[in-house]
């Protein structure tokens, strides 16, 4: 599969609907990272929406703005990478400039460059390869915020917006986001995390719930 970014309009895609709708639509789309001329990546199986200034779980809650979260304030389609301790997380800004909403890509089902990604993860493979956003970034070999503030089309990242290349889930589940402060029960419980039911690469997926077909529809 070859991604033709000339046919993609990231600005339109990441601004033409509500952020939660965009997040759900990303499920099943290929996320690619080009590393030293090699294509790494897979299908997005889990993502979370963050709804901006009103969302107590968002980094931009209440209009907070700093160099650390500036990516959220840029136009939809801008990469926002943040770090916690030694771990890095991949987000894409949504909506128009200065409307700081975004999507956290939590997990992918690896397809391209699996050997390279396994090496980047120090030999960890199987579901442990990319079943979490920090693991995914490690698999890509990313250990910095170098691509923060870059627009998708001006970076080594690509999200395939061609529906012909999208995998279709049998069922997409909406649930509460992971790791949200329970001191705010309203936003902690909002169903803004979307994932493929039964896909083993979804973070925290229980073995008894994993499906052999990984939850995808047959073509």
Could you give a quick summary of the protein structure above?
This protein has helices spanning 10-13, 19-26, 114-120, 133-139, 185-189; strands spanning 30-35, 38-50, 79-84, 87-94, 101-112, 157-159, 172-176, 191-196.
Descriptive account of the structure:
The chain is α+β, with helices and mostly antiparallel strands and 219 residues long. Helices cover 14% and strands 27% of the residues. Strands 1, 2, 3, 4, 5, 6, 7 and 8 form an eight-stranded antiparallel sheet that branches. Strand 1 (30-35) and strand 2 form a beta hairpin. The radius of gyration is 16 Å and the shape is globular. It starts with 9 loop residues before the first helix and ends in a 23-residue tail after the last strand. Its EC number is 3.2.2.-. Belongs to the DNA glycosylase MPG family. Pfam families: Pur_DNA_glyco. This is Putative 3-methyladenine DNA glycosylase.
Count of β-strands: 8
CATH superfamily: Methylpurine-DNA glycosylase (MPG)
Low-confidence stretches: none
Oligomer: single chain
Structural class: alpha+beta
Instruction: Average the pLDDT over all residues and give the rounded result.
Output: 94
Helix content: 10-25%
Instruction: Note the total helix count.
Output: 5
- Give the SSE string: HHEEEEEHHEEHE
CATH top level assignment: Alpha Beta
Instruction: Say what the CATH topology is.
Output: 3-methyladenine DNA Glycosylase, Chain A
Radius of gyration: 16 Å
The N- and C-terminal alpha carbons lie at a distance of 16 Å
| Dominant shape | globular
């Amino acid at each position: 599969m070859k991604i033709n970014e000339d046919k993609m309009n990231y600005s339109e895609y990441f601004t033409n609907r509500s952020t939660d709708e965009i997040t759900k639509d990303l499920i099943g789309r290929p996320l690619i990272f080009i590393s030293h001329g090699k294509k790494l990546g897979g299908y997005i199986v889990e993502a979370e929406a963050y709804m901006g200034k009103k969302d107590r779980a968002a980094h931009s809650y209440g209009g907070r703005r700093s160099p650390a979260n500036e990516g959220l304030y840029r136009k939809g389609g801008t990469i926002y990478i943040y770090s916690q301790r030694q771990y890095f997380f991949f987000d894409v800004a949504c909506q128009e400039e200065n409307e700081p909403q975004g999507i956290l890509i939590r997990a992918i089902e690896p397809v391209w460059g699996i050997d390279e990604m396994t090496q980047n993860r120090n030999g960890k493979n199987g579901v442990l390869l990319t079943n979490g956003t920090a693991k995914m970034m490690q698999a890509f070999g990313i250990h910095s915020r170098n691509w923060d503030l870059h627009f998708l089309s001006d970076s080594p990242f690509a999200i395939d917006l061609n529906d012909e290349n999208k995998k279709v889930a049998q069922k997409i589940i909406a649930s509460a986001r992971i790791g949200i402060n329970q001191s705010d029960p309203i936003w902690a419980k909002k169903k803004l995390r979307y994932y493929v039911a039964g896909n083993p690469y979804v973070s925290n997926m229980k073995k008894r719930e994993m499906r052999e077909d990984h939850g995808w529809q047959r073509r």
